[in-house]
Design goal:
Length: 573
């Protein structure tokens, strides 16, 4: 008997089982009325038997004999949303994952590693001695989805459009790039405003992919939200509100994908996505299921054959401290807050182990990470916190009161705030009192740079895979002083208003330094400076999950939070 025949027989058995259950329910209802089973014992017996019958029925419906749909197309289910697929305007993690599969960039990462490798470039750039001029040789024999040949002119068009059209991510290049020019048929020359050692990593950002000049134009605000014409392994053939259809691009220079195409199915809730995966309606589930749903899939994997891919992600969660706002303008106060945080408790009680403790602004996925908050403070170091607060003049009768702000629409923020308040009360009694406050995300993002909040719990996902993107956006200040704090710059935008001449110097050095070992040493010094002066307190680092059906092969979850769809295939045996 074939798998599909077994599946049909299973459906018939489930139908007759449900009919039999209905008959038994009717019989028990009638019997209960005749015998007037009003005692608690009688009701308990009735419910226990009905529960047993329901368990048997549910076990029969468990999708242990699901079979894949015919053909070599796959369905990826997600709760993410896509507002635009235009690389010059899209600035969401999931859209970046789509562009990763639809387009090519000058550089990318070797699968399964954080090793940067050429993609549309033939080699790494030749960099001038002053670090401002990048000359990049380009690959030949590449065509766009509409048949347009790829060359230096089209690559220059793509990057200039990214800069000049003024979309959400445009600042990534516009703040840094002076000019982009084709200096040969297959040679690109990029002039920078200031040296930036991580520039090749920035050119791996999904939005910097090549796009066809026939399908797009350079003009402020001229975006194409519902179409894409690039050079990647897939072409976009359908853009709908509930589904995207990606077909394998037959002329792709890098070889054919292992499947015929991918259908991206959007679900309105984690519950709907979970049910779709559980019943085999989707082959792959990605972003995002609830904590309980993730655990259920893990627990069932041994019997169902489901595969769970889990990897430390690039998103960090941290507390911003406004160093110009009393009492947080006192260093001892900021250090005491850093000492009392218990990341292990946050991980286990709130996230059921589905995050990792974070002890610096740089996540553990990068080699430059040094856990300076762990070595300097540890977790829930009540003795250190008490000593610091006592030195600052606080006591049980004169306690430290700090407003702890979080986003009201982010459930994990509220849980973290409540948990930390309980930890402070348990460890320090009345000495430290956290006063919880919340506001919706949109309001918080608008007001944080105005200095409204003394503290705020935020998250951050890097735009490109380099330690600089976890340091410069937090610490650099263009205008300020130790007395006024940061008036203009990254730390002002983040709401910490932290100003440090030493931090500025180190950030600038790290951006000029081309030697990886020396650059790593600079980042180590920066991370210790953050732990010493505490403009931010790192809390936790997310984990990424990818779930696949038993018949799906070739799945991987990259350190860049991307999923290469072209390696997915259905098992033939």
């Amino acid at each position: 008997m074939t798998g599909q025949q077994w599946f049909r027989w299973g459906g018939m058995l489930q139908y007759w089982g449900a009919w039999w259950l209905g008959q038994r329910l009717s019989w028990w209802r009638a019997g209960a009325q005749r015998l007037k089973l009003a005692s608690s014992w009688g009701r308990s017996l009735l419910f226990a038997l009905l529960g047993s019958l329901l368990i048997v029925s549910c076990q029969q419906s468990t999708p242990t004999m699901l079979v894949p749909r015919p053909g070599n197309r796959l369905v990826l289910g997600t709760t993410a949303t896509v507002e635009t697929i235009d690389p010059a305007d899209s600035y969401k993690i999931f859209t970046g994952a789509l562009l990763y599969n639809l387009g090519d960039r000058l550089y990318t990462y070797k699968l399964g590693t954080d090793e940067l490798v050429p993609q549309l470039a033939r080699d790494f750039p030749q960099v001038s001695e002053d670090g401002l001029t990048y000359t990049i040789p380009l690959r030949q024999g590449v065509v766009y989805h509409d048949g347009t040949p790829f060359n230096a002119e089209t690559m220059a068009f793509s990057l200039n459009r990214f800069i000049q059209n003024g979309g959400g991510p445009s600042f990534l290049l516009s703040d840094l790039v002076e000019s982009v020019q084709a200096t040969g048929d297959y040679e690109l020359t990029i002039q920078l405003k200031n040296p930036f050692a991580a520039f090749p990593s920035l050119l791996a950002f999904s939005g910097t992919c090549a796009v066809s000049p026939k399908a797009y134009k350079i003009e402020q605000g001229a975006f194409v939200p519902d179409a894409f014409v690039g050079t990647g392994p897939y072409k976009l053939v359908r853009y709908g509100t509930d589904q995207l259809q990606l077909d394998a691009f037959e002329q792709y220079w890098g070889g054919q994908p292992a499947n015929q195409g991918i259908d991206i199915q959007f679900y309105s809730s984690p519950a709907n996505l979970f049910n779709a995966f559980r019943t085999g309606a989707v082959d792959v589930a990605y972003q995002s299921l609830s904590l309980d749903q993730v655990n259920k899939i893990k627990e069932s994997a041994a019997t169902t054959g489901w595969r769970v891919l889990e990897k430390a992600g690039g998103e960090i969660n941290y507390l911003t401290l406004n160093v110009t706002s009393p009492p947080l303008n006192r260093l001892e106060v900021r250090q005491a807050l850093a000492a009392i945080v218990d990341r292990q408790v946050l991980r286990d009680r709130i996230f059921q182990g589905q995050v990792e403790p974070l002890y610096t602004l740089i996540p553990s996925t990068l080699d430059e990470e040094v856990p300076t908050f762990q070595t300097t403070y540890g977790d829930s170091n009540a003795a250190k916190a008490r000593e610091l607060l006592t030195r600052a003049g606080y006591s049980e009768t004169h306690p430290l009161k700090v407003e702890f702000w979080y986003r009201s629409n982010i459930a994990s923020g509220q849980l973290a705030a409540v948990t930390l308040k309980a930890i402070a009360r348990q460890k320090l009694g009345k000495l430290l009192q956290l006063e919880l406050r919340s506001v919706e995300s949109t309001t918080a993002n608008r007001l944080v740079e105005k200095g409204v909040y003394p503290t705020f719990l935020f998250d951050w996902a890097a735009d490109f895979l380099d330690a600089d993107n976890y340091i410069e956006p937090f610490l650099r200040c263009r205008n300020g002083s130790p007395q006024t704090g940061c008036i203009e710059g990254s730390s002002q935008v983040q709401g910490s208003f932290y100003y440090s001449e030493r931090a500025n110097e180190l950030v600038n050095r790290s951006r000029r330094e081309q030697n990886p070992d020396k650059r790593r040493q600079i980042f180590a010094e920066i991370q210790q400076l953050v732990a010493d002066e505490v403009p931010y307190i790192p809390f936790w680092q997310n984990k990424d999950f990818l779930f696949t059906q038993p018949w799906v092969q070739g799945a991987s979850l990259e350190v860049t939070q991307k999923v290469p769809l072209w390696t997915l295939r259905k098992a033939t045996g």
